[in-house]
Amino acid sequence: MIKENYNVIGVMSGTSLDGVDLAHIQFSIIDGIWQFKILEAQTVAYSDDWVEKLKNALNLDATSLSHLNNAYTITLASIIKRFITTNKLHTIDAVCSHGHTILHQPHKGITLQIGNQKEIALLIDQTVVCDFRVDDVALGGQGAPLVPIGDQKLFNQYDYCMNLGGFSNISYTEDGNQIAYDICAVNTVLNFYANQLNLPYDDQGKIARQAKVDTKLLQELSELDYYKIPHPKSLGYEFVQEIAIPLIDSYSISIEDKIATFTHHIAQQIAAVLPNRKAAILITGGGAYNSFLIEKLQEKLPLLHIVIPDRKTIEFKEALIFGFLGILKLREEINVLKSVTGARRDHSSGRIYPRPTSPLEKDFITAK
User: Fold this and answer.
1) Tens of pLDDT along 254-281?
2) For residue 368, what pLDDT is reported?
3) 287 with 262: CB under 8 angstroms?
4) Which of 8-17, 265-274, 352-361 is predicted least confidently?
5) Phi and psi of 28, rounded to 5°?
6) Do the Cβ atoms of 165 and 187 come closer than 8 Å?
7) Consecutive H or E run containing 355
8) pLDDT in tens, 169-185
9) Are 164 and 286 in contact (CB under 8 A)?
């Protein structure tokens, strides 16, 4: 689908379990330069029931996981359809959806994002582009991060682009190649402990600001094997569940001190990987609102120019870029870079499920 203007919906569900991000975006390309405008945007929070289901999905057997995938596909479709109806959206080129990551073990050739079943095109009556990670893993790549192509083409005025979501990931150009990888866990850990205080998250880092840092735990966290691995590399919730949380819980300190220590750890790990300390960095994702974390990062890198953008860009940049990935897939253009993921080649990743156009076609999909 080669043209100059596109009207899409980007859909993202992150590991922070905040909910489903939806962004209606208009893209245009003029003389090879991409431009965008985020129009309507919304985060639909998960019910408590869905939060628990998604948290525990890693422990399900194959049959139970398949049932969860079916149920999540229906729920996600309902959320998307309501967004389209509420905002009276018409002539949509595609809904470009990431799905929700349950398993991400690229070293084993495994990655699973639920909600990417072909039935979703029927349920929302739209063309859907989704399942962006599987092809890359099949090509020997990490399957993540996928946003760097968007950083390269939509946000190239910054030296670095960093997202602070469930995990922190960074993207930048080095020697003509786009480099990107996951740095460390962020809200997957901070929210885990905030939840134990009956809070959804550490608002603006207020808990961390008032608590104490355990220097021994901070040192042990910095010595985790993942940080010694060269990029390309990526993290999944398995890292949090099997490595980070058990290590933190081995220390008999208060929950508040655990939050404070890990917040300092995040700033420490981010500071350690930035080769250009005088650069401009765009920070998005929920962690951009954690003013204490941003302060700690600025203290470690006083010459770094930190840019916190407008609310829509902070909260919906990933949805925006998955919308962009979908457009590139529709245009049969490269949307995943081997320099980022370690795959054998650059490629155009994702599945396209066309909008069912006839009753016969809809009946066929329903039967399947």
Assistant:
1) 999 999 999 999 999 999 999 788 899 9
2) 46
3) no
4) 352-361
5) -145, 150
6) yes
7) none
8) 999 999 989 999 999 99
9) yes
Q: Are strands 110-114 and 94-105 parallel, antiparallel or unpaired?
A: antiparallel
What distance in Å separates the CA atoms of residue 270 and residue 272, rounded to the nearest whole number? 5
Task: Name residue 76's amino acid.
Answer: L
What would the pLDDT profile of 188-219 be if each residue is shown by its tens digit?
Answer: 999 999 999 999 999 999 999 999 999 999 99
Distance separating alpha carbons of residues 16 and 197, to the nearest angstrom: 17
pLDDT above 90 coverage of the chain, percent: 89
The whole-angstrom separation of Cα 173 and Cα 176 is 6
> C-alpha distances in angstroms, 169 versus 99, 234, 273?
18, 9, 11
CB atoms within 10 A of CB 364: 12
**Type of residue numbered 214:** D
Bridge partners of 217? none
Tell me the C-alpha to C-alpha distance, in Å, between residue 313 and each of 4, 259, 270, 282, 285. 23, 26, 21, 10, 8
Q: Are 10 and 22 in contact (CB under 8 A)?
A: yes
Q: Are 345 and 138 a contacting pair, CB within 8 Å? A: no
Q: How confident is the model at residue 359 (pLDDT cuts 50, 70, 90)?
A: low
Identify the residue whose tokens are 């991060």. Answer: 145
- Cα 335 to Cα 350: distance, rounded to the nearest angstrom: 9
- For residue 113, list its beta bridge partners: 101
Average pLDDT over residues 337-358: 93
Match 């990743």 to its residue by tokens.
Answer: 349
Which two tokens mark 354? 């066309």
CA distance 232 to 143: 10
The SS3 call for residue 356 is: coil
Peptide bond into 230 cis (omega under 30): no
Instruction: State both tokens at 146.
Output: 């996928």
Return d(Cα 184, Cα 265) in angstroms, integer: 9
**Dihedral (C-alpha) 173, 177, 181, 183: value to the nearest 10 degrees?**
-40
Residue 48: predicted pLDDT: 93
Per DSSP, 230 falls in state P
